[in-house]
Amino acid sequence: MLLSQRPSGQVKSTLILAHGAGAPMDSPFMENVSERLVARGVAVVRFEFPYMSARREDGRKRPPNPQAQLLAHWRVVYEQVRQQVTGPLAIGGKSMGGRMASLMADELGVDALVCLGYPFHAVGKADKPRVAHLADLKTPTLIIQGDRDPMGDRQTVAGYNLSQAIRVHWLLAANHDLKPLKASGLNHEQHLETAADEVAQFLAK
Known about the structure:
single chain; alpha/beta; seven-stranded mixed sheet; 7 strands; globular
């Protein structure tokens, strides 16, 4: 099942947005980001991986499918959407969804890649990064990352060898969900607005 939202006016680009490991395609975060992007002229298409679709049917929580299955599902969704839309088509997602997209971006020949809270490593496992493929990534990529993200904070990510095609936009005092510390004087809404601005401007290029 695809969940598509289109701007009322001209569609500047289309973004296929995948959910993270623990929340569905219509989670508050996914809804919030999608609405903001649509307001900025970006059409957003959301979908669910098989394990999340099964959870929606019976309510039972499951771990994500094996990586090969997640990537195979990405291929199917991309081909389906590519046949339905014209113009620039980007892929991306929240956390795991974005990481799976990053593994497919060059293969699919997408126009751009957008990752919201990239899981550079598992929590507490900075010594086991998931970044080998990011060194040679050719697809223009934007990563929106909280600078205190436990899956890749600013100091840790600075030590990685990332492709020149990747730009990381850091959000002050923000966590993996792009939510800032109250002491920062910022709020989640401000960071989501900034994220949407950055993504829309990036896709417009």
